[in-house]
Design brief:
heterodimer; A: 712 residues; 20% strand; B: 302 residues; elongated
Amino acid sequence: MTEPLLEVEGLDVTYQTKTGDLRAVTDASLSIDPNEYFGLVGESGCGKSTLAQAVTNSLDSNGAITEGTIKYRGEEVQDLSEKEYNEKIRWKEIAVIPQSAMNSLDPLSRISELAIEVAEAHTDWSEERAVDELKQLFDVVGLPESRVHDYPHQFSGGMKQRAIIAFSLLLEPSMVIADEPTTALDVIMQDQFLKHLDELREIRDFSLLFITHDIAVVFEMCNSMAVMHGGQIAEQGTTEAVFDEPRHPYTILLQQAFPDIRYPNRELEGIEGVPPSLQEEVDYCTFADRCPWAEQECWEGAPPLETVPDNDDAHEVACIRNDEIEDLAAEYLDERDVEGAAAGETPVAKGASAAADRGDEETVLELDGLHKHFDQSTNIIDSIKSRFFGEGDEPVRAVDGVDLELKGNQIQGVIGESGCGKSTLLQTIMGKYSPTDGEILFDGDPVSEFDKSDWKEFRQRVQIILQDPFNTLNPHFTVRETLMEPLRIHDMERSEERILDILEQVRLTPAEQYIDRSESQLSGGEKQRVAIARALILEPDVILADEPVSMLDVSTQASVLDLLNDLTNEYGVSMLYISHDLSTVSYVCDRVNVMYLGRLVESAPTMELLNGAKHPYTRSLLQAIPVPDPHHEREWAELPGTPGDATDLPGGCRFKDRCPDRMDICDTKPAYVDVEDGDHQTACHLHYNHEECGEEVADTPAAAISDGGEPR
Amino acid sequence: MLLNSVSKITDHYLLRNLRSSLRLYLSDRLTVAFLLGFLFVLFLALFGPYIAPYQPDKIFFVEGGGVLELQPPSLAHPLGTTSRGQDVFSRLLYGARPTLFTGLLGGALVVTIGVLIGVTAGYFGGRVDDILMRVTDFAFGIPLIPTAIVLAAYFGVGTWTTILIIGCLLWRNNARVFRSQVLQIREREHVRAAQMLGASDRYIITRHILPNLGGMIVLFFSLGTGLTIIISASLAFIGFADLGIPSWGLMLRNAYNSGYIASAWWWSLTSGFAISLTVLCIFMLGRGYERVHETNVSEFGG
């Protein structure tokens, strides 16, 4: 066996805070071999970033390593001073890809200047050598060498990512640490990022410590992994061993909680509870409180990390019941299913298969050729000019002709990359923007003709759930006041019972305990539940949800998704669910609409879309989703470039520049041809019978818009 | 029933926040020290005239018939006398009230105008924002002291004129800061959620925007108060003040005009220090409150 590159042994990291010491990492041990890709998974606050900061000697000033060693190439590095560490290790040996990688380049320096700066600080390279090395690396990651002298803003998002990867490898480090590098990216960008990293493995020798909350990415990318919970390592081993034979309850439940696009029908099970506060001395299993199989013994001492007797000798787990956990888990999962059936719980299908059972005939919300364009010019002179002389810039066509019908008690999803116009669509429906063209029909009545009392009714019957749990509640309100607000605004009876009742509905039980909490006393998932309760308390007909789970931990994500699913059935509401993540969308939605550059390109019932996506864009989106299975070889999505510019749309099909199946006709014929196949609509020439329909295509009103550049 | 409604009032969110903030506020020793300093000045402003041993205008004479001028501190006159034979200690005690009165009122005026303009511009945006911000830009172009002198020449010198002039010129900084804050708060999701519930603009401003501006408002109130004290002292120093009211600024002016500003340190330095220390206390109180507000918010955010 080779000597490990990085060895962490019995590491304790403590932060001193005003309210006492916080033991962020307790007794963590792991080792990373040369050329190994190592994944570190856990929910927010589990200590994974702290562990990485300890390794890179960049802990916050109030944090300190209180015990344990960090060995790099067999040499202890935890006691090195900042200066020594900079001289010996940083960049040269261990490089870091920061969390918001896209924004980490200094906008005022050329990339080559940054490289020279780094080389000067850590080596005795000449300027020419630094630039040459950077050029070589640009070549490796597939960027043109000539662009090393560009400024960061001259790169597109995807190129910036590659530049950052190249940059981190500049001094030929043996190890790269990436802390949540893909968290802020949408699924296509993430896919590209992972692709570059994966390809580099062939070209360069280095180990990667990949820190993320996304277990699917780790299963896909890494050779080995560790799962952290409450500051401790719960389980580690090769990804295959952890996937095939998980021995820690947390790992097992995490796998249950994680959506897998291959099985949209599978029930997701969230993990209840939160890890213990690390400010107190935790001398028991940190997972005991959340574990369905916890015994008295689990509360009596912290479980040691034991080696699991299987074919992977590095597989270790910190659970005293690890030898029997497999049977317990199997039993538990079976039991749960049986229980559900026996208790006469509504035999509502969960996940995508619910599609068939849901949705009335009646249309609640209808979008008819909806357009929302934004003027680019902001100053008065320009707007006068464009008004009277028809001059000026092209408008940004954020939403450019969307037709959609939302039926009663149906959940429809709208997905697309960031910048495709999905959020603008939602905000236009909410009435934040007035549409440039087209109409929103609510219950058959056009919204544009609403008077004041109609709006009031609309505001009661249409509610929203927003993305960010951390600012969805007013920090000055308690839960009670937050939930009173809708009732107060709509002059409805404000009773305590009603609030307690709705809290029970969103599973915040016992409700009496939650009602008086302030915003700061709720966890992220609980905040989002309160936000859902706020939307439901007026008993609306339509809920507009804007990525409601994207900022939650996986363990809470599943239960919130479940809740949305259940409540849709119980209350009979309809929902428009907007997200970039097809795997969560497919889990709640009955029907999915795919949006690209302001238009819907495909719309189909969820199962049909997953099994038979027709539009090349949808296929790429599906392909880009990481699969939580180390045995599964996923092809990288073939989707070069970024979405075009919504001010300067190409003639013909909007997707043609990125389309792997581009044909001649895509250049000349209009962008939007609706190919209907029963319930399945696609805007793509691949599926369009041109001979049969002949020239009609060019005459459709939608076509006129895309060619003429002016809305109807 | 009554008890219930009382407990409801005491549990109102603003009061509750105030209570918890106050607790945090008093946990910082430095802030407590400055609070005590401020309370002392406030005490002087309220009761100074009753403690003062003499009337501020009373002129003391030496036995021979001349004025008891420029006496260094003694038992009879703890802080000596002025060139006109007035008791400096008494004048100092009497001076606290007009000084603090001008400051607090001016600060309140400054922050009120600033909040009104800043919140309106930030919340409503568009044309309203354009117009209000251009007005603010214009206000930035007005030189403070010369304008104050010109206005004082028109409307006459006096405490009220001073307050009005300062209030109408100093709001410009606040308005900009409040506007940018509101631009951020306006985009928060709880504000958007309330808008989507159909809440009126007034409701959103009073329940969602202003409470979240609280720390800023207090900070700028304290800054405004301090600045008003300084500027009114400056105006008094160059002669634009009611000569009948013994403010600290006027004391400085008299000391300067007498020509003994350097030698009669008990006269010039005491009033100068009184101004500086008062302003320091007020600034630091605002700073302390802002710190409390920040910790609160970061706890919320955390």
